[in-house]
Amino acid sequence: MSWDDSITGSTVRPTRPDRRAYVPPFLRNNNYNIGFTVTTSFEKSKQYRSATDHRFDRPERDRLANPFEIAERFDELEVTENNEIELGINFDAYEDIPVETSGSNVPPPVNSFTEIDLGKAVNDNIKRCKYVKPMPIQRHAIPIAMAGRDLMACAQTGSGKTAAFCFPIISGVMRGQLTQPAWSRRPRVASPVALILSPTRELSCQIHEEAKKFAYQTGVKVVVVYGGAPISLQFSNLEKGVDILVATPGRLVDMIERSRVSLRMIKYLALDEADRMLDMGFEPQIRRIVEQMEMPPPGARQTMLFSATFPTEIQCQKHLSSRWNGIGIEFLRFCDQWILWYPPEFLESSCPDTGFCETKKGADALEHWLCMNGFPATAIHGDKVQMERERALKSFKSGVTPVLVATDVAARGLDIPHVAHVINFDLPKDIDDYVHRIGRTGRAGKSGLATAFFNDKNTSLAKALLELMQEAKQEIPPWLNQCAETSSAWGSSGRGRRYGGSSAFTCDTPETTNYAADEEDACSEYLEA
Ligand SMILES: Nc1ncnc2c1ncn2[C@@H]1O[C@H](COP(=O)(O)OP(=O)(O)OP(=O)(O)O)[C@@H](O)[C@H]1O
């Protein structure tokens, strides 16, 4: 069955094994003799490349060019043998979580995608994605965005924010009938009508993949530009025409300065991980993009900010519009969390080769230690070139290496299905970073677990962590209460505020994510994006 046919077919593929009987990817590897073989999508793509020089084999090429194919082949990994973990979207998990909205004349939420006039092509793609009904953030945000209102949406990690801003943008571009190549108006200058900014290269690529799926056969062209990849290839992609541009700020500014991209046609501006974009080193770049680079003013463009965390100061700053008449949405829920007291010496003695996860070197060392101890692992951090970062993510997603050790470069936005466990070997300084890290598990209403090792170095995070655990109705170890009391003597650090603290990071895998990073690492990675 082709993707074109799939919307008329059953939502369950007849050949797919029972998803309920989930076996962790590392147990499916050929190296473990458990009686069956899995060919990963990554291996398949390698086979495809080597098996053909059938460059002109159109059907095969088209099949691979179909954006839906990527997700579909990844789904094939879900080969199962026994009944352990129930998978699938758990809408019930959201039922008891209120969605709060603020602002005037808020358009009412919808209960189904068909209630919204997204256009037939987009609705077909929603069916191809097997999205049966909108997630809560989509129920609220899509009608608001479709009504042309500015929006600041704070919704939990993994709750479907990407579709919440992509659907209205794609639908709006379709309605605008901007079908001719944008560059044709000024030769070699791309003039997209929508701009989606995100802080990391990996997240931009992921948004691009998602948006391409949602825009399949709509005529809307989506292009991504990001640092660390050849700019000439991205120029030639832009020259083929672009309606929606997904970008990291650094590369975008570079392209604007070279007069290869113009923002004067922008009607839709979306900032994913908006708090990060308006924080740290990004703010000057975002200011330039929004205020100085031909970007139409508020009112002439629609602005949408999305994140799972919005520090109070960002909510108060009207960075993007002095005439903010937008709507706010809040929808939060957290995965299960364990906080364990572990003195730093314990971690050091567990992993004698390293200063354990306080630096990018530490992440590499943890990766090495895990591999030596029988846990196939891969690491992603800012010292790796882009190709290595992408290779690490692919290897993790495909299940070849079921443990990913990562710095904060992978903390936000990355949607990797079936990550069951996130481990913070070192806690971040900032509670918002913690929220994003643990958000790599428990996505789309699934269950997930986050474990953190806490020690003396993390006391400045104690109060915020305590509040978060209370909000999430988690069991709180008595020592955390004491730490929080002591640390509040130095000042409060409620959720949404920035803190001082320790280093480190966790990583994600289809099974486990361990973060190991330091502040310098996180900063430089975001800045170089
Ligand atoms: N209506 C829906 N029905 C089923 N699955 C959905 C629906 N909407 C989104 N999803 C899936 O839910 C997962 C999480 O979505 P997404 O990555 O957009 O979350 P997010 O809120 O942006 O997360 P983060 O805060 O980490 O960036 C994705 O795999 C996506 O395909």
From TrEMBL:
GO molecular function: ATP binding; hydrolase activity; RNA binding; RNA helicase activity
Domain Helicase C-terminal: 334-484
Sequence ranges assigned to domain Helicase ATP-binding in this UniProt record: 142-315
Domain DEAD-box RNA helicase Q residues, every copy: 111-139
InterPro entries membership: DEAD/DEAH_box_helicase_dom, Ded1/Dbp1_DEADc, Helicase_ATP-bd, Helicase_C-like, P-loop_NTPase, RNA_helicase_DEAD_Q_motif
Main EC class the enzyme belongs to: hydrolase
Stretch forming the signal peptide: none
Motif (Q motif): 111-139
Pfam families in alphabetical order: DEAD, Helicase_C
Reactions catalysed according to its record: ATP + H2O = ADP + phosphate + H(+)
Database matches in CDD domains: DEADc_DDX3_DDX4, SF2_C_DEAD
SMART domains: DEXDc (SM00487), HELICc (SM00490)
The keyword Magnesium appears for this protein: no
Alphabetical keyword list: ATP-binding, Helicase, Hydrolase, Nucleotide-binding, RNA-binding
Family: Belongs to the DEAD box helicase family. DDX3/DED1 subfamily.
UniProt name for this protein: RNA helicase
